[in-house]
Amino acid sequence: MNKKLLSALAVAAVALILNACSDASFDKALRWNNQASILCYSNGQVTLDDTSTGRVEINENGIGFYYRSAKTKGLVQVVRSDCVIREL
Q1: pLDDT tens-place string over residues 39-80
Q2: Can you give the pTM of this predicted structure?
Q3: Measuring CA to CA, which residue among 85, 88, 48, 54 is closest to residue 68?
Q4: Who contacts 62 (Cβ-Cβ below 8 Å, separation ≥6)?
Q5: What local confidence, expressed as pLDDT, does residue 3 receive?
Q6: Could you give phi then psi for residue 19, rounded to 5 degrees?
Q7: C-alpha–C-alpha distance, residues 28 and 25, integer Å
Q8: DSSP secondary structure string, 17-58?
Q9: CA-CA distance, 42 to 70, in Å (whole number)?
């Protein structure tokens, strides 16, 4: 095959893949190491107000998340908590 046809097929394949992704899945796949604001609540009271140094990761079991704190530089793991995580 000639190079123009291969290039056109590659562009078409990429366009189909990108078009098939929702905004959320596309953003999730391309979100590298952005900081995030983490707010957790219990009974209407703020129990955690922190910022991550990078990406917030979901635990393998899916019931929590972890991140490195910008305030303490330590690893923080949160399990079974009502939290709002906003990418900065």
Answers
A1: 999 999 999 999 999 989 988 888 899 999 999 999 999 988
A2: 0.63
A3: 54
A4: none
A5: 73
A6: -70, -30
A7: 5
A8: HHHHS-HHHHHHHH--S--EEEEEEETTEEEEEEEBSS--EE
A9: 22
Q: Which residue carries 């009974």 as its tokens?
A: 43
pLDDT of residue 80: 87
- The C-alpha angle 24, 69, 44, rounded to 5 degrees, equals 70
pLDDT score recorded for residue 32:
65
Taking the C-alpha atoms of 60, 61, 63 and 67 in order, what is their torsion angle to the nearest 10 degrees?
Answer: -20
Whole-Å CA distances, 42 to 45, 47, 50, 86 = 5, 6, 15, 18
